[in-house]
Amino acid sequence: MELLGDAVLNLVVCDHLYQRYPDAAEGELAKLRARIVSEPYLARIAQRLDLSRFILLGKGEEKSGGRGRPSLLADVIEAVLGAVYVDSGFGVAHAVTTRLLQDTFEEVEQPGEDHKSALQELLQERERRLPRYRISSVEGPDHAKLFAATVEAGGRILGEGSGNSKKAAEQAAAQAALIFLQRRGGRARR
Question: Model's pTM, two decimal places?
């Protein structure tokens, strides 16, 4: 089921990206696809759905923490998608996959828009500093957390942002910092 689910997952993600970014370069779409179907994202979906409680494990695997292992959780998501495909066909598997990945699709930026990398490049070029990110708060229930992040350089907060994951919150903070620095002429001051 895992092998079949992996194929369904990749096809649905490729279809989504092609429809959303019809003019994007193949390489950019391939990078986005790889991020979306990566182990951390899939494991997070499995955690959100609390699928680990349905995994049958041997005593040794259970004792060694296998139930929470990201690679195992990602495999479970793929197996579930394979089972949906076998049971209900591609149309239903496409709909289920799209629904499960909705937050991930929203979190992944458009091709070429990586605010954290852009901020790092700007700060290194102008001030020879690196940005530092901090998660300032986490609110909400486990299945719908909202993270708030700040980014600073040289002892000064440059931006704040929030998102449904730490990474999304850091991206939002970096975007706010870029806007702030562009308005100030580019330098962070203490």
Answer: 0.57
